Sequence to fold (167 residues):
Amino acid sequence: MKLIAAVDENWGIGNNCKLLQVIPADMEYFKAQTIGKVVIMGKTTFESLPGKRPLADRINIVLSTTYSSLPGVVVCASLTELFYYLKECGREDIFVIGGESVYCQLMTYCSDAYITKIRNCYPADRYLPNLDKALNWQCIEEGSWQRSREWEYRFTRYKNLTPLSWK
Fold:
């Protein structure tokens, strides 16, 4: 299991149920990493998707206690139910895509984190824990800063030195 997110300099990930910034190159990176894979998200993240529809060409799982079913989506009400489903489907290519509470619940089970760092600070009400300060996470790849219109960003990858097994 891996996680993927875009963060600002304060590790903010969202504000008012929206991404802090929509950077086209980051959207392409997200798509390239997750296409054909399992993606796990919370209810708010699902509701923020265009048209509130599942992401195409991926197995979409929504972790939620308020939804019982959604078209084209697997709904799991608990981590126990989620882990049971993941074992049954037999897929190893799994990405946690947000939001804050789902990241916090699952990041200890993630082996890797694909983080797009945005060189700026934005108003945020949702955050990812700062992996640079986490003792069990180590940055193993750090791309060069890129520029696109008003954004500066870079792609990084972190390794969890002590991931828990969900199997």
User: Anything to note?
Assistant: The helical segments are 24-34, 43-48, 79-89, 100-106. The chain has a mean pLDDT of 96.
